[in-house]
Write a structure and sequence with these properties.
Structural class: alpha/beta
Mean pLDDT: 90
Order of helices and strands: HEEHEHEHHEHHHE
Strand content: 5-15%
Low-confidence stretches: none
Largest sheet: 4 strands, parallel
CATH architecture: 3-Layer(aba) Sandwich
Radius of gyration: 17 Å
CATH topology: Rossmann fold
Number of helices: 8
Number of domains: 1
Helix content: 40-55%
CATH superfamily: NAD(P)-binding Rossmann-like Domain
Length: 231
């Protein structure tokens, strides 16, 4: 699970481990909140670095023998105008949000193809369709991921490896709070789509990772928040 130290990734790692799976978290930071879970392992990995990703995946394979699923959730969301955006910001956003998914998929796919089984879940965003001022790099990366996931799904379908995309909706994560400080925009999301919690997305992800999700090249979209406690 890339980008698993916080937010949706951390919530999913906990849920996966609680159900008897072993959750492997790749992130550039260490999450103390995940310490103490016997079935959660953390590895410091910058997913924009292809060799680091390959080395980390090799380490996991040596320890556990196989990787059954990949949740590609690592992302950054800088806020800046297009006119003033420096080349580093643009390239780094694509390197993490887009390249990181490609490198991670490349690293885990050989084993999945050999076993003729596996599930890859890619995160997109409503901004891929709608766009947003000061979020051009993020929106562009998510739009590209949608097409990439469908193309990859077509490539590996004959090997029974599934590749699906989730649009989690507006979720109250550290990244969201950093990109949407208190004020007008946060109030806008709360009054329109609603703001969900990371735990609200876990059920969707566990479904896509399970054998019950007998589809590939598909998109699961949560357009509006629907908190669990309201069910």
């Amino acid at each position: 699970m890339t980008g698993g130290a916080h937010g949706i990734g951390a919530a999913t790692a906990r849920a996966f481990a609680e159900r008897g799976g072993t959750a492997i978290v790749f992130d550039v930071v260490h999450a103390p909140d995940l310490d103490g879970h016997d079935r959660i392992e953390q590895h410091r990995v910058d997913v924009s670095d292809r060799e680091r990703v390959r080395d980390a995946v090799d380490t996991v394979l040596l320890r556990h023998g196989r990787i059954d699923a990949l949740v590609a959730g690592a992302a950054i969301q800088p806020r800046c105008d297009v006119v003033g955006m420096d080349p580093y910001t643009w390239r780094q956003t694509l390197a993490v949000n887009l390249d990181g998914v490609v490198w991670s998929a490349q690293a885990v796919l050989p084993g999945m193809i050999a076993r003729r089984a596996g599930s890859i879940v890619v995160f997109s965003s409503g901004l891929a369709h709608a766009g947003r001022a000061q979020a051009s790099a993020y929106a562009a990366s998510k739009g590209a991921l949608t097409s990439f996931a469908k193309s990859l799904a077509a490539e590996v379908a004959d090997y029974r490896v599934r590749v699906n995309t989730i649009f989690p909706g507006v979720i109250d994560t550290p990244q969201f709070r950093a990109a949407n400080p208190a004020g007008g925009e946060r109030e806008h999301w709360a009054a329109t789509t609603g703001i969900g919690t990371p735990e609200d997305v876990v059920g969707c992800l566990l479904f896509l990772l399970s054998d019950a999700a007998t589809m590939t090249g598909s998109t699961l979209t949560r357009d509006r928040a629907f908190a669990q406690e309201e069910l």
